[in-house]
Amino acid sequence: MTAVSAAGVWKYYGDYPALKNISLTVASGACLALLGRNGAGKTTLLRILAGLSQPSRGTVSIAGLAVRDPRARRNIGILGHGIAVYEEFSAYENLRLFAGLYGLADPHRAALEWLERTGLDRVKDGLVREFSRGMRQRLAVARAFLHNPGVLLLDEPFTALDDRAIVVLQSLLAEARSQNRTVILSTHQLREALELATHVALIQRGALAYAGERTPIMLEDPGWLYRTYGEA
Amino acid sequence: MSFFRHAFQIAAKDLRAELRTKEALNASLSFALVILLLFSFAFDPTAEQTREISGGLLWLVFAFAGALILNRSFARELTNDCLDALVASPVSGAALFTGKCLANMALLVAVELICLPVFGIFYNVRWVHRFWPLLLTLILGTWGITVVGTVFSALTVNLRLRELMLPTLVYPLLIPALMAAIQLTTGLLAGQPLAAELTNWLKLLIGFDIIFTALALGLVETVLMG
Amino acid sequence: MKDKLLYAACLLAAWLVLANLSVILLVLPDEAEQGAIYRIIFFHVPAAWSAFLGFLLAALASVAYLVKRNLWFDALAVSVTEVGLVFSIVNLITGMIWGRIIWGIWWTWDARLTSMLVCALLYAGYLMLRRAVEEPAQRAKFSAVFSIFAFIDVPIVWFSIQWWRTQHPQPVFRGGGSMDPAMYKMMFANWVPLLLLFAVLSAVRLRQERARSEIDALRREAHAL
After folding, report:
1. Which residue of A has its CA nearest to B22?
2. pLDDT tens digit string along B162-214?
3. Predicted confidence band at C224 (pLDDT cuts at 50, 70, 90)?
4. CA distance C24 to C171
């Protein structure tokens, strides 16, 4: 079953194409590592897949539904560069808010459950404003996974995470994989990503230079992909 | 219906956040009271003059104070990229917009209801006997300001010079609504009944509100999507 | 070929204006109340018509952009808005000159003049908005939204100000409603060259906007390499 599909996606900024004819399909349960240099178009593509940005041409669907369909959006969890939680609210209030927006049956319990899973239960009534960097990142992760989305879109998730947060995220991603949920993550951290990934896609100046399964050689020699398919 | 549920959730969130920090509320209220005071010094109107300018004075104060609240409306979503999380969620653009309008409306009407007695005291104007038609005018006029102001708050949120762009774009658009509200208020405070001429201004105000609410609801999703 | 067409249109416009001017200045009689200066109406009113035409075209182009997302429509919108704004300023200035000569004051809150002033403010705001947005597609989208809001507001502004003025009357330029048919005909006759000028200016601006768009894209591509 195809979980995420992009067909003929182009994104123009004015007359300049930031994404050129991207077509890829990601099956349920796969974990796709989206690789590429800075400015290649990874974030642009992820934002389009998340429904935050409209492609200039082409379509995106999540489990067969158009990405802006509310049913599709209920099924997507995003983790971007910003933590996307409110400073003036407590950890609990933030999760309770998003649980309500996503229409969860018991938002109160869901919030408490995820506070515990990310190790924030003891500070649940603390304002985010007062949290350390690591705590904020863990709250962001909780927010992304809170509604048990079938598709997770993560933009450079391992950047700026402290050790505890990395552990939490890795275990959540492993669990997501075992539950046949789909993960697409963009990254510079080749090693961590390639360990988790089942598939790999390389974006080069807006175009898809490679898309396929992750092979053993990629794991042994992370630079291989760039050397073989990328430009110097 | 999830539209209303989402709209109320968003409105509640905004109100809770604002009541916790009271930033925009305090700024708006102090600004309004200061202008009221300044106008009194600047013009030192007689009783007769006050009657003639009361509507204009009040609505200018409301419009300026309102800009502070409206600016904050979408600006508060910029920290930590919260707007992305909201747009990616199942909440529709129209529901997000409506929720914010409701919150902004509540805040602005609260500021106005505080300004009204202050105005009455400083300018020696009796208004209590016309409270209900005045309240109707307040609500209709403020809704016009809120609806146009909120949609452009969404539009200008990512722009440079946001604080300048919002009033520049919104005030000319609001001229018909402000004019109607001003005429109504001046008329009501001068003792005119809500009939004949005044009803025409009332109809204009209602028409404005309906047209621009519909237009805003139709275009807000376009504005929010990147 | 395109250039020749534009030059030809310019020449035609100039010729028509001169032809009209000869009629205006030499043939038509002075108006009863206002004397010689009323002749300014033959530029004052068609300028307003041209301005509103510009704003209407801009609104239509804006809708077309939002539907098709083709930047050509955005270029069209900004071109006709700018030219429309120029004509609205012509209307305002000729109005002020007229007022100064008849009543000795530069500005009265005459309903038509005030409405035109508000429109000019609205569309000046449109141009300011464009300067505040860097990214072309986003700029096009935001200006399109504002253009639609502005155009829908125009009749409401017009109506509310008319009404305000009937309640608190001020002197108006043209007293009664009726006008000598010869004068009416001349207003339309003089609109033709103004429309030609409108078309020429818009075409030139449109071409410039498209060129700028292309340069912008090339620059982005160069930076990316």
Report:
1. A88
2. 889 999 999 999 999 999 999 999 999 988 887 778 899 999 999 999 999 99
3. low
4. 25
Chain B residues within 8 Å of chain C (Cβ atoms): 148, 152, 155-156, 159-161, 165, 168-169, 172-173, 175-176, 179-180, 183, 197, 200, 204, 207-208, 211-212, 215, 219, 222-223, 226
Report whether pLDDT(C171) > 70.
no
Q: Is residue C34 part of a domain?
A: no
pLDDT of residue C33: 64
Domain residue ranges of chain A, discontinuous segments joined by +? 27-49+70-229
Comparing CB atoms, the residue among C128, C149, C159 nearest residue B168 is C128
- What is the DSSP pairing of strand A31-35 with strand A182-186? parallel
Q: Which of C52, C11, C56 is nearest to C196 (CA)?
A: C11
Number of domains in chain C: 1
Query: CA-to-CA distance for A166 and C160, rounded, in angstroms?
Result: 62
Q: How many CB atoms lie within 10 A of CB A93?
A: 21
Range of C172's domain? 2-18+43-224
Residue C27 maps to a domain: no
SS (H, E, C) C106-131: CCCCCHHHHHHHHHHHHHHHHHHHHH
Residues in chain C within 8 Å Cβ distance of B172: 118, 121-122, 125, 150, 153
Compare B212 and A225 and report the one with higher pLDDT.
B212
pTM: 0.92
With contact defined as 3+ CB pairs under 8 Å, the chains touching A are B, C
pLDDT per residue as tens digits for the range A169-197: 889 999 998 899 999 999 876 777 888 88
User: What phi, psi does A16 have (nearest 5°)?
Assistant: -100, 125
- Please list, in sequence order, all residues whose beta carbon lies within 8 angstroms of the beta carbon of residue A135, skipping any fewer than 6 positions away: A91, A120, A123
Overall fold of domain A27-49+70-229:
Rossmann fold (3.40.50)
Nearest Cα residue in chain C from A41: C224
Which pLDDT score, from 0 to 100, does residue B209 have?
97
Pick from B172, B197, B208: CB nearest C121: B172
Instruction: Evaluate whether ipTM surpasses 0.90.
Output: yes
The predicted-structure confidence for B108-137, as pLDDT tens digits, reads as follows 999 999 999 999 998 888 888 889 999 999
C-beta atoms of A70 and B85 within 8 A: no
Question: What is the pLDDT averaged over residues A201-207?
Answer: 89
- From the list A14, A56, A205, the residue facing C217 with the nearest CB is A14
- The torsion angle over the Cα atoms of residues C61, C121, C128 and B163, rounded to 10 degrees, is -120
B88 touches chain A (CB under 8 A): yes
**Which residue in A has a C-alpha nearest to residue B90's C-alpha?**
A70
Q: Which of B158, B6, B30, B174 is nearest to B95 (CA)?
A: B6
Q: Is residue C142 part of a domain?
A: yes
Q: Does A56 touch chain C (CB under 8 A)?
A: yes
Partner-chain contact A14 C221, CB within 8 Å: no
* CB < 8 Å to B214, chain C: none
Q: Considering the domain boundaries, does residue C136 fall inside one?
A: yes
Cβ of C216 within 8 Å of Cβ of A12? The answer is no
Neighbours of chain C (3+ CB pairs under 8 A): A, B
**Could you tell me if A143 and A132 are in contact, meaning their C-beta atoms sit under 8 angstroms apart?**
no
Quote the pLDDT of residue A223: 77
